[in-house]
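Our platform keeps sequence and structure together, in a single record for each protein. Nothing more is needed to write down the fold, since each code stands for a local backbone conformation. An entry from our holdings is shown next, in its original layout:
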Amino acid sequence: MTLQELRAIPLFSDLSGEQTRCFEPGEIIQLETSKVLTNEGDNVDFFYVLLAGEMRASRNYSNQAILMGIVKPGMFLGEISLLLDSPNLATVRALKPSRLSPWAPGCASARTTRWASGRLASSGPAA
């Protein structure tokens, strides 16, 4: 992911140079249609930004998968579990071939975490 691609996403449009270092240049996850990114209950390792494609977030209730949301390019996922340090809330599967940029939580400082919490609250999480 280039800095230009990152800044084109509203959530990241006003990141400082220091904050953009959390996104490894060129690190991209590619998923084919129907491939699972994360499962409900998994430990969370990353916060993801969807660059291309479409993802489906669903949660299992009484042995039935319930749609929690559809993630489209420019949207983000994994933010709730990452910020709360809790297991993943949903299973996320690619509906189309997808490209995602992962954000490593170990890069977050207290200042970055406060910034992200405020931005997420005002932007409204995707799933």
In short: The two ends are 22 Å apart (CA to CA). The chain has four helices and eight strands. Helices lie at 3-7, 17-20, 79-84, 110-123. The first helix runs from residue 3 to 7.
